[in-house]
Please model this.
Amino acid sequence: NGRVADIRKRTINRDLLLEPDDVWTGPVIVKSDLNYGGQPEKRRLDQPGDGRLVRALRPHLSRWGVTLPSWRPIGPQSYRIHDRLADVPGADFRNPGLVVEKFLPERDGPHFCVRHMSFLGDRVTCVRLRTAAPIVNGLNSAPIERVEIHPRVLALREELGFDYGKFDFVVVDGEAILLDANKTVGCARNIARDPELIRGRRYRANGLYSYIR
Model:
């Protein structure tokens, strides 16, 4: 993934981002700009050396008008959904660690859905997770199902320059909407042994050979 320099949602999800004065009448979601709630970055800042220096410089940088992301954890369980853009607190717009996006859920009857496209080299798999909750992840999802790979998400992988990783997306009215672009493939512990996920890992593993070639 040497060609991938920035996977923040401000970079990846530009079509979803909202500002206070935008004209949008649908629901909105407030989430972390950084993947996984910024926890990897937080752990690096907590290490001796450069992380300690950044913490020491933070108050001085703010006086020069330079802001650093907030490391307040806000993983998927803490994402907030509002009925209207006007309901979003002003502090959320001013927090550089957060983004406000259009909430465009994929629905299947009473369920909310999210799709995961995972890939390595020329091997690509895609599954869909379903749950009754509007925030879908491996911690609360129903049984996992394999689904067709959406051509738009494949094209986005090429456009963004990814060799390996996982894209989270939804399909609404036939259109694929990217939510997250991950340079690693994680998995919630409670679904790690799901048969569909195990088959997908075994299939993608051989993508390493085509990547090396």
